[in-house]
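Exercise 3.2. Students should predict the tertiary structure of the chain below and write it as structure tokens, then compare their answer with the key that follows.

Predict this chain's 3D structure.
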Amino acid sequence: MSFTPPTHGRTRILGLLSLVGAGLLLGLPGAALAQAASAAAAVAPEVATESVTNPYGLQALWAQGDFVARGTLIIMVIMSMGSWYIIFTKLFEQRKLLKSAEAAAKSFWSAGSVKAGIGTLEEGSAFRYVAESGVTASEHHEGTLVEQIDKHTWVSMSVQRAIDNINSRLQDGLAFLATVGSTAPFVGLFGTVWGIYHALTAIGISGQASIDKVAGPVGEALIMTAFGLGVAVPAVMGYNWLIRRNKLAMERVRAFGSDVHNVLLAGKRP
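Answer key:
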């Protein structure tokens, strides 16, 4: 739709433009022409662009929603924050473990003995924990019950138990990511169904079924579904990525534990 300025304003503009044109023909000075042009620009009507405020959105959903809608939003916010916290925390742990694997490959096997190699490993690292468990089992194979198990099996059990503890530690938090990835879309869908129910109820009570009365509240309720998908997708992708990196890290740990086990059973001094 085109904007048509008022008739009197248009008449004034045309008159000023005629004056400017006449000045050009009569050779008026440049200052006079500039003054006439600025006057014409001053009287030109300004078309104001009004910013349309959207009455529907997440803010309106929170302000107008009941305790069920707000509780659903809070649950999904908690799910999202927990997912991102676990993703970044596990990435840091995996990075630290892989860095310890590189350090163990460089320093541990160049030492004169297993105990000397343990001293080169970082305090509290997974590889040091595996090596210390193997050395402890090799040096303390005594007792009535323990002696019934041969040394090979005893050391193997101790090293494998240490590796299983590390694997269990790496798996911490992944169950939460899997739960969020599988349930967040349904939580968002529940919020959408609840919002549409209340929107249709309000429309039925008011007796007005125009498009602005229907599309707004229904579209507002669909924000819940979008929010649920936005929470679930990063959780699923993060879960699959962390599982892949855990597998790579545990391969390094198992290989190290197997080598330590063989060295301890080779008859050399630990």
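Discussion points: Confidence is low (pLDDT under 50) at residues 1-7, 19-28, 30-34, 43-49. The chain is about 80% helix and 0% strand.
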